[in-house]
Amino acid sequence: WRERLRGLEGWSDGSLQVDALGPVEGEASIAHVRGQPKFMHDLTFDLRFSGLQRCRLCAKSPPGCRCSKCVRVKGKILATDFSWDNSDVVALRVQRDEPPGPEHVKKANQEECKDIADESLVPAVRAFLEASLAEYRAQEGTEGPKWASQLPPSAQWSGAPYSAPTQ
């Protein structure tokens, strides 16, 4: 998964970019239960990002234009519970870091950082994780031979033969 998550490094939408993948902790494995693969994973990781949200005037200007009203953003997305039992809902939390630059420039606070990241970066990370899960599950097909306990019964059960109690 570490190599798979490295695919997020360098992602950019023009205003935000993923700078680095932090430590990836946990494990992932494919276990076979009654002949069928179970794709288990339980991971935590963080993605460090930074960027610049340009003000209206600078947004209309050529690329590279910025002023003291443009908002500098720096933070990380924490994936605290990316596991197989709740892979449909990945817990992603945005945490702000102090952006570089002199004191007179505008820097995003926690709420602004979260709002800016929630616009494009968080949905992109969710989409990437969904695609990675689909690829992970496609590694080994689930259409293998069935065990006897997984097959439907070969004959209809008609119940136990009726016999009246004897005295």
From TrEMBL:
<dbReference type="Pfam" id="PF09229">
    <property type="entry name" value="Aha1_N"/>
</dbReference>
<feature type="domain" description="Activator of Hsp90 ATPase AHSA1-like N-terminal">
    <location>
        <begin position="14"/>
        <end position="131"/>
    </location>
</feature>
<dbReference type="GO" id="GO:0001671">
    <property type="term" value="F:ATPase activator activity"/>
</dbReference>
<dbReference type="InterPro" id="IPR036338">
    <property type="entry name" value="Aha1"/>
</dbReference>
<comment type="similarity">
    <text>Belongs to the AHA1 family.</text>
</comment>
<feature type="region of interest" description="Disordered">
    <location>
        <begin position="141"/>
        <end position="167"/>
    </location>
</feature>
<dbReference type="InterPro" id="IPR015310">
    <property type="entry name" value="AHSA1-like_N"/>
</dbReference>
<protein>
    <recommendedName>
        <fullName>Activator of Hsp90 ATPase AHSA1-like N-terminal domain-containing protein</fullName>
    </recommendedName>
</protein>
<dbReference type="GO" id="GO:0051087">
    <property type="term" value="F:protein-folding chaperone binding"/>
</dbReference>
